[in-house]
Automatic annotation (TrEMBL):
PANTHER family: NAD(P)-BINDING DOMAIN-CONTAINING PROTEIN, OXIDOREDUCTASE HTATIP2. This is NAD-dependent epimerase/dehydratase family protein. InterPro entries: Epimerase_deHydtase, NAD(P)-bd_dom_sf. It is found in: Membrane. It holds the Pfam family Epimerase. It comes from the Bacteria. SUPFAM superfamilies: NAD(P)-binding Rossmann-fold domains (SSF51735). Residues 3-113 form the NAD-dependent epimerase/dehydratase domain.
Length: 223
């Protein structure tokens, strides 16, 4: 399997990348980043790309890849609705169109959020925008597609969040991580990556996956 990963400099994306590096079924990894990542490996090819609303200049690079793990995201806190829409929907739309044109016979997974609004009619802006993004991806026509509606996530393998507040929370709660991991709704950065890889060979009827669903996929298809 050859995979494209966005957002690998962030907490979830880096966790997914580490799992792809370790998994023997993943042969090649194409990273699309705005800034270089601090990981070097024979599987990895990294492209530094500044304008995520236009992938036309690198679209040919996507040919031959079997999956796209779209882990790039931004918090709605502190930014206006227009900026959030651009950084969430517009960027995803550009990536979806470019990867679909390169290979429609592809698995596409999108890191969404718990509480996302598929109706696109609710009162919460971020939930509507993520819902619109999910709907675009799931209805595009890819061979398979999923929305990972992440809620409580525990970082593993030294992965850190770019958000200082989240990192502070993780530091003070680390002693109870083993307890938190027992909760069905809580997942980890490692399990998110493992689930994305597993879905390539094990399609699921449920397309909106929450923490418990992700954990179950990892348990069912452990290899």
């Amino acid at each position: 399997m050859k995979v494209i990963i966005t957002g690998s400099t962030g907490m979830v994306g880096k966790g997914v990348l580490l799992e792809c590096i370790d998994d023997a079924s993943v042969e090649n990894i194409l990273l699309i980043n705005r800034s270089p990542i601090d990981i070097s490996h024979s599987k990895i090819k990294e492209i530094i790309h500044k304008d995520f609303t236009d992938f036309s200049s690198i679209q040919d690079e996507f040919k031959g890849y079997n999956a796209c793990f779209h882990c790039m995201g931004v918090s709605s806190a502190g930014i206006n609705a227009e900026a959030y829409y651009k950084l969430t929907f517009s960027i995803s739309e550009a990536l979806v169109n470019a990867t679909y044109q390169a290979n429609p016979d592809m698995l596409f997974t999108y890191v969404s959020g718990a509480g996302t609004d598929s109706s696109e009619q609710g009162n919460t802006i971020w939930a509507r925008v993520k819902g619109k993004t999910e709907n675009l991806i799931l209805n595009k026509g890819f061979k398979d597609a999923y929305a990972f509606r992440l809620g409580a996530i525990l970082p593993e393998r030294g992965v850190k969040s770019k958000t200082k507040l989240y990192n502070f929370f993780y530091v003070i709660t680390k002693p109870i991580f083993p307890l938190l991991k027992r909760m069905k709704s809580v997942t980890t950065t490692s399990k998110i990556g493992q689930a994305m890889i597993n879905l390539y060979n094990n399609p699921q009827p449920l397309k909106h996956l929450e923490g418990a669903d992700i954990n179950q996929i990892v348990t069912l298809y452990k290899h």
